[in-house]
Amino acid sequence: MPGQKDALTNSHTDRVMARLAAQYPEEIAWGKHYAVKLACRNGSVHSRMMREVMAAEGLIGRKEQGREHWIGVVFNQLQKEGIIIWNNLWHKYWSDERNVHERTVKCWAILKESDYPQYFVRPDL
Predict the structure, then answer these.
(1) What's the alpha-carbon Rg for the chain, to the nearest Å?
(2) For the domain bounded by 4-120, which CATH number is listed?
(3) For 54-73, what is each residue's pLDDT tens digit?
(4) Residue 89 and residue 116: Cα distance in Å, rounded?
(5) With bands split at pLDDT 50, 70 and 90, how would you rate the model's confidence at 10?
(6) First to last CA, the chain
(7) Which H or E run contains 109?
(8) pLDDT > 70? residue 42
(9) What mean pLDDT comes out for the span 67-82?
(10) Domain ranges, ordered by start, for the chain
(11) Is the pLDDT of residue 96 over 80?
């Protein structure tokens, strides 16, 4: 049946995103804060840029082994909220130090008409 696989994939993705959101609410709140600030300052943001800032701030470890699946929730939620949009650009990265093989991630831009300033306030957790 056409579209059935997409519906199943979206349903599974939604369940996984919900589970991660419940497990990592603080990390996601901080991630949204930094993702929006970086996108406003730089014109775009990607997950590695956000991760580096969070590591520098001591919010996550510098050498974790790529187990930060919750980072996808940050961008998924911001996109669903209409705060960011994929700008058709990609960022390629890898990290021998963290044992992360080459990956490509989307770059995101702020939707200027959105309520993005709400994320300038540091999360009160």
Answers:
(1) 15
(2) 1.10.10
(3) 999 999 986 655 578 999 99
(4) 21
(5) confident
(6) 45
(7) strand 100-110
(8) yes
(9) 94
(10) 4-120
(11) no
- Asked whether residue 27 carries a pLDDT value surpassing 80, the answer given is yes
Q: Residue 29's CB: how many other CB atoms inside 10 A?
A: 15
Instruction: Write down how long the chain is.
Output: 125
How many other CB atoms sit within 10 Å of the CB of residue 36? 24
Q: Which residue has 């996550």 as its token pair? A: 60
Q: What percentage of residues in the chain have a pLDDT greater than 90?
A: 71
Q: Nearest-CA neighbor of 119 among 41, 66, 65, 62?
A: 41
Cα atoms found within 13 Å of the Cα of residue 13, Cβ hemisphere only: 10
CB 26 within 8 A of CB 123: yes
Query: Residue 65's CB: how many other CB atoms inside 10 A?
Result: 10
Mean pLDDT for the chain overall: 89
Own/partner contacts of 97-100, CB < 8 Å, gap of 24 or more, are 97/63, 98/63, 98/64, 98/65, 98/66, 99/65, 99/66, 100/65, 100/66
Q: How far apart are CA 48 and CA 90, in angstroms?
A: 11
